[in-house]
Amino acid sequence: MLADLPYSTRRLISPLYYYYYYYYYYYYYYYYYYYYYYYYYYYYYYYYYYYYYYYYYYYYYYYYYYYYYYYYYYYYYYYYYYYYYYYYYYYYYYYYCYYVLCCCVYY
Asked: Where are the domains of the chain?
């Protein structure tokens, strides 16, 4: 395109032509860098959010499991205590009826 023009015109246009292309490539490089930075920031934010969500879910699951385990343990302990208490009174009543009342009847 420039070869068809005269030499004086080429000398006048050539710096502007290269300056224009230099500016264009600089602008393109800047845009590409900005886009890369934005993508990197978005990816980092997404990763951080995912990590936070995963940590929160894990913590919630752990808390729920701990609460369930504690509730089960408490229920088991309560049942065992009730069972022990019931048999204790049963044997006490049996002992009282057999050894005290029966002995009083014999004597």
From this structure: 14-106
